[in-house]
Amino acid sequence: MKKLITTLYAGLVIAGALRAQQPEPCGHTAYQHYLEQQYPGIMQRQQELYNQALQQVNRQAALRQVRSDTVFTIPVVFHVLHNTNAKNLHDSLIISQMEVFNRDFRKRNADTSTIREIFRSRSIDTRIQFVFADRDPQGNPTNGINRVRVTRSTYGGFSLNDDMKFSSRGGVDAWNTSKYLNIWVCDLSVNNLDALLGYAYPPVDAPNWNPGSFVPSPEHDGIVLHYKIVGRNNPFAASGALAASRDGRTAVHEVGHYLGLRHTWGDPPNGVNGCSVDDGIDDTPLTSSRSNFDCNKTRNTCNTGAGDEPDMVENYMDYSSHTCQVMFSAKQTGIMRFVLTQFRSAVYTAAISSDTIVEAFKIFPNPNREGRLTVEIPEEQLKSHRYTLDMTDMNGRRIWNGIALKGSVNLLGTQLVARGVYIVRILDETGRVARLERVLFL
Ligand SMILES: [Zn+2]
Question: What does residue 437 show for φ and ψ, rounded to 5 degrees?
Fold first, then answer.
């Protein structure tokens, strides 16, 4: 019976989209039900994981994670499945999709200016960024775009099946999903209609998870995108129902799911009593239902009394038009960074942002008459990085090089340093600058 109901659910979503002649922007919820059918109990486990993440985000530890300057970098492979040349998307579209990821996740999108005043301070740089994979799983050089000619004309259907992820079913096998973010670009149409734009596999690999019971195999993990909405200004989305989805933000939304986020309206069962179900994130206002590819800033679907706020249609996790979706909130960022470090810990590399001078790293006294320099490093940073220090004079002459910094407080003798200004840098193991200071020795 369960099987029948869940297959029906996915079918209803797709059929509804076809009837309305509007594509379903995201199959996340339908896909959850598909997984529940395959792996009974998975939705409950996801709820537990989500609650765990939420608890952390509401604690100080996660707030530190929200503020942390560590930038996480995720390698991405795009599998481009095509049975016609038209579906074999040009490199420029794939590259523009990557640009959109890095623009939006790093809050470098100019359209943050459209965020209403009430929400502006909640929009933040997630400090999560993306690079094309440069090695395939066998260690061979790659540009991160895996083009595969397939015989199937579409992978869409009335029930979600994940066939695009398996060569045995006419698709393309994942690259190790714990090491790469896999994105399958393929045709998701049904009867030549654009029924679904994308879906993502949510994080389920909690340490206390029993892999043998209800976790789908890791080969399912990743994101699926309809080829017509990949990248910016995709020619297949030039007009009609897809025109609201041509800024590459369907993929941004799906990466949000991949990193543990839910829709801002919380996906109430069967869409009923929407105001009783939240996304669990308290800096996105309570919302009962989705936007409809538009940008209605008068939308306010739940009245919460004193302090009531309108729906945050600017959020990437709504279904507003791409030109309307411009932000992740601070708490959403906390969830994504927590999920990444706890449940997708093999997929990223962490480094202090090279464009950030981290105030928590201290080099003092300055000016210096002491005959010694003190360097302090946050304890938290020592757990994941090895830091060294170098010092050059103003002519670029190296005075110190690669001095290992041990522990959170380091005392360094400066007896040999002549009077003058010197550049002192703290570097992480990849050579990125965590702190740069000009120190005057007297
Ligand atoms: Zn979604």
Answer: -140, 140
